[in-house]
Design brief:
The structure holds two protein chains of two kinds. By secondary structure, chain A is an all-beta fold. Helix content of chain A is 0%, strand content 55%. Chain A has no helices and eleven strands. In chain A, the strands form two sheets. In chain A, strands 2, 4, 5, 6, 9, 10 and 11 form a seven-stranded mixed beta sheet that branches. A four-stranded antiparallel beta sheet of chain A has the order 1-3-8-7, with no helix packed on it. Chain A is globular, with a radius of gyration of 14 Å. Chain B is mainly β. In chain B, the strands form two sheets. In chain B, strands 2, 4, 5, 9, 10 and 11 form a six-stranded mixed beta sheet that branches. Chain B has a five-stranded antiparallel beta sheet with strand order 1-3-8-7-6, with no helix packed on it. In chain B, a hairpin with a 6-residue loop joins strand 4 and strand 5. Chain B is globular. The chains are: A mainly beta, B mainly beta. At the A-B interface, strand 5, strand 9 and strand 10 of A face strand 4, strand 5 and strand 9 of B.
Chain lengths: 117, 113
């Protein structure tokens, strides 16, 4: 166990559905992340929350909506997705430093395998 | 543009042999370099990291080497075992960002029995 739990592990949804991915970390970290992992592509950073404030949004389409109610929980709300959004969605957490040197070792959950039909 | 990339997409080794996985990076402004292992059906798992002021760091059966002159990073696995079969990613922790990691595309390691 990595200390980062993601649910559900698998999700199949239609293009008109609304669903949410959930992530919980038990490591006491102050930052949480959503990544998208597609076949043969590097990990793509989608969102970063540091101290529950969104600090990065990498031009992600608005059909993906993150929510971070507290430092231990992170959600990714999905609606009207496209087939090309099918991928593995990974959540991670880390303890980020307030000043250099930045040693940001991120710990990942097992991911949610999403299929959009 | 900036990138962290891997030379070999797939590496096949005999069980018991040593494995060397390589990674090239293009930007010198990094504090740390990190190696991750991702097994099938799992998320990336932290293996070992090295700070930019070091050349070598050893862990249990793994060694990371950093050559800043040619911007090259390698992960050496001693006495490779079937359980080492996975995709290995290098990642770069930039000096100008406390939270952003730049990941390489990954190398798949296959261990032949």
């Amino acid at each position: 166990e990595t200390g980062v739990t993601q649910t559900p592990r698998h999700l199949v949804m239609g293009m008109t559905n609304k669903k949410s991915l959930k992530c919980e970390q038990h490591l006491g970290h102050n930052a949480m992340y959503w990544y998208k992992q597609s076949a043969k592509k590097p990990l793509e950073l989608m969102f970063v929350y540091s101290l529950e404030e969104r600090v990065e949004n990498n031009s992600v389409p608005s059909r993906f909506s993150p929510e971070c109610p507290n430092s231990s929980h992170l959600f990714l709300h999905l609606h009207t997705l496209q087939p090309e959004d099918s991928a593995l969605y990974l959540c991670a957490s880390s303890q980020v430093a307030s000043s250099p040197p930045y040693k940001n070792i991120q710990y990942f959950g097992a991911g949610t395998r999403l299929s959009v039909l | 543009g900036e990138s962290v990339g891997l030379h070999l997409p797939t590496l096949s080794v005999q069980e018991g042999d040593n494995s060397i996985i390589n990674c090239a990076y293009s930007n010198s402004a990094s504090d740390y370099f990190i190696w991750y292992k991702q097994e099938s059906g799992k998320g990336p798992q932290f293996i070992i990291d090295i700070r930019s002021n070091m050349d070598k760091r050893q862990g249990q059966r793994v060694t990371v080497l950093l050559n800043k002159t040619v911007k090259h990073l390698s992960l050496q696995i001693a006495a490779t075992q079937p359980g080492d079969s996975a995709v290995y990613f290098c990642a770069e922790n930039r000096m100008d960002s406390s939270y952003k990691l730049i990941f390489g595309s990954g190398t798949r390691l296959l261990v032949r029995p």
